Amino acid sequence: MLSADHLCVSGRLAPLDLHWQPGERVALIGPNGSGKSTLLGLLAGLHAPDSGQVRYDGEAMTALDAPSLARRRALLTQRVSPALGMPVFELLRLGVAEDALHAGLERVLDVLELHPLLARDVARLSGGEQQRVLIARTLLQGWPIGRGRVILLDEPLAGLDLHHQLALLRLLRELSERGALLVVSLHDLNLALQWSSRVVCLEQGRCVFNGASAALEQGLLEQVFKIRADRVEAAGRSWLVTPLE
What we know:
Layout: E1 2-9, E2 13-20, E3 25-29, H1 36-44, E4 51-56, E5 59-60, H2 66-72, E6 73-76, H3 88-93, H4 98-112, H5 127-141, E7 150-154, H6 162-177, E8 181-185, H7 189-195, E9 198-203, E10 206-212, H8 218-225, E11 230-234, E12 237-241
Parallel strand pairs: 3-8, 3-9, 6-7, 7-8
Antiparallel strand pairs: 1-2, 1-4, 4-5, 9-10, 11-12
């Protein structure tokens, strides 16, 4: 469904090959500056690679015009400036088809608890509230979300409290069950491993792991993140504990 063949950006991302299918939940992990945002930007078509190619359903992204690409993928970047002086509801409507707005609005508003904010000026919201609005807009741009849709999110949990982090991850899991492909960069390793079906781990622009979440080894995480991590079994799950000492 989404593939990258020998994708490379000189000095930022070493050549890598990726092949993902509908319904997969892919967590991108790695230290700051490891190439996660660069990779998401390449997959979304924000900038061109020095070599290699991205394909959607076997079709080269370079052959897709802007409307065709927009129908296939939605992207949340880290650097988004909310429109100042605009009510939340008006911002949510920008660039969203009316049928998609009506189909997905209530579900997204409920999960992200945005009903009380709809009439408020985006500029007067807290950072976490603005992030929830931007996430909602991204998801609505990709609606109806199902097989054939790709959702690319760059650190969507940044600025969210734990309640809204978990609510969003549950919604993203629900969307994957409808057949959407989710590719999300995450910093919380426990949340990343719980939520994802696959993990891509980057280190200094190189892909050092690409596989099932359950196969990711503790030793690799310690090496990449330069930490000591202990695995603890609790509630039927394996958790990572990183001691301060």
